[in-house]
Amino acid sequence: MTDIPTLQQQLQLPTDKQHGIGAAVKHALMFAPSMTDIMIHEGQVIRAKSARGTLPLHQLFSAIPPFLVTREHIVTYLAGYVDGATRQHRDDRGQQQSVQDYWDTRIKPVLARQRSVNIRLDGRGGHSLRYSLFMHGTGELALVMRITPPDIAALTSLSLPHNLVATLAESTSGFIVITGPTGSGKSETAMSILDWHNAQHSGHILTIEDPVEKKIAPRKSIITQREVGYDVLSFADGMREALRMSPDVLLTSEIRDAETAEQAIQGGESGSLMIATTHGKSVTGTMRKILSYTGTSADVMRSVLAGNLIAVIRQALVPSKDGKRYLMAADVLFNTGKVTQFIERGDWIGLESAIREDNRLGASEWVPMNNRLVELVKRGEIEASEAMRETSDIPTLKRKLAAAGVASFGR
Asked: What span, in angstroms and rounded, lies between the C-alpha atoms of 261 and 348?
């Protein structure tokens, strides 16, 4: 007599090159709120960056077997299969291409030229997957997949400070900077701002992205989304051309060079609402980094920045205590009152000092992330150690946690 299969055996997923990655990703996306990235390296098991830590997928989800990824797995997944279903490819003459032909003609040449390829594809449940394919070591392939939700979140649902939400909703011109580490929800916040304006105003919303992470359906506004490498050669070219396209709201998903930095800073002066997402560890550090790209024009650009900046938002996604989701927290610096004076003078040390000292800046000028972190720790939603990991002001957070009767651990 044979044994009756267990539920675990019934759920065991395939590992062959045609279905292995697709089946694993499809299963993992059922639990997408607990993950930000899936990491696939040739010769290794698939891993995920999750609220429980960066762990092999088979440790997070028992139905996924611990198989080693081969080059054929990655080639077949990207070029031929997504979610385990065959993708139909046509060449320039309309003839159907094999998986290998598609890889050889569409992906491999870009990888050979740039050493990396950025791709956006849709996954299970409409989740947008931003793929970064690259080579490392001695030529091994690696793939990092950023997961974004299927729908654009309402601006009011992001757990941002109330006065920031009101400011974002009211602003129709000026410059907004959203900063933070990789995987901190910057793009999600930017998309929520765009979607709010799309619902409320008739106009032209223009984005420059690498890649386009989420398609925005037109509502009251006309939508133009341009992807670097496909629709435009670079962020600088995209920004230069954008201001001739009469945008009412303009987004650049990165600032990497002098021309993009200058166009972004000046964009708010044109009457448009300019939004930029970029990587940064603090609000002051982000402003200094953007200005540093402008070189000898930095003094002039700083004056322009002081005149049209609305706010700098530094975000973090903090893993919940139960490991099932991430929670938003943000530092927000508003360009009003004393903040404007610090920026005009370029007194970054003075501004940083004012930020870190209680009551130097009012609530209309500065809303610290620490307030939200302390609230989440007190409610038992996050660990104090995770709060310490995300804050940009450790001494103040320690003091606030101690005042709340919570022991702090971490850096």
From this structure: 19
How many other CB atoms sit within 10 Å of the CB of residue 92?
6
Could you tell me if 48 and 142 lie in one domain? yes
Residue type, 323: G
- Domain residue limits at 216: 155-367
Residues 49 and 143 in one domain: yes
pLDDT tens for 303-343 read 999 999 999 999 999 999 999 999 999 999 999 999 999 99
Contact 388, 410 (CB under 8 A): yes
Q: Per the structure, how many domains does the chain have? A: 2
Token output for 402:
């101690």
| 250 vs 268: CA distance, rounded Å | 9
CATH of residue 194: 3.40.50.300
Q: Which residues pair with 277 in a beta bridge?
A: 178
Amino acid at 251: L
Q: Tokens standing for 265? A: 């800073």
List beta partners, residue 252: 208, 276
Evaluate the CA torsion angle 402, 405, 406, 409 in order and state its sign: positive
Whether 409 is covered by a domain: the verdict is no
Asked if 189 and 304 sit in the same domain, the reply is yes
E runs forming strands in 308-383: 309-319, 326-334, 366-367
pLDDT tens digit sequence for 150-161: 789 999 999 999
Out of 99, 119, 148, a domain closes at: 148
**CA atoms of 324 and 178, how far apart (whole Å):** 25
Neighbours of 234 (CB within 10 A): 16
375 within domain boundaries: no
> Could you tell me if 87 and 16 lie in one domain?
yes
- Which is nearest to 39 in space by CA: 48, 31, 30, 27? 48
